Amino acid sequence: MEIEIKIEPGRLLPKIIIVTGKVNKDTEALVDMISRSESEPELICGFKNDVMSILEPGEISRIYSEGRKITAVTQDGEYVLKKRLFEIEELLEQSKFARISNSEIINLKKVKHFDLSFRGTICVKMNDGSVTYVSRRYVSKIKTILGV
Questions:
Q1: Distance from the Cα of residue 112 to its chain's centroid
Q2: What is Dmax (Cα atoms) for the chain?
Q3: Which end of the chain offers a freer environment for a tag, N or C, measured as fewer CB atoms within 10 Å?
């Protein structure tokens, strides 16, 4: 990748131009990263015992919904989130987090292993010992992410 910076004294706002032979995942990730950095970063705040904490995305192993409650699981415990699951999904890096069902997102960096022996689904064992499953609807997406 080549990077070029051009100084224009009269310019008030930066202008970014991406020159490429074709649009691929790397190009899309770059555009996504630049787009996110332009806006104020949104925080993921979780509540535990009436105390609000700011959660670092890298420390979250999974986020799931149960009824109308959204819960983030970290090594420090479970936190209730006030945002909806799709809003949280938009805040997370797509290269590190994956939606595995309509009600759950996992941190791929916190996965111990994927068990593909189950018929029609995938069993996911997390580093913390918890087990969850990829719904049938998301199996092909996860296999694509894993390169299987």
A1: 17
A2: 62
A3: N
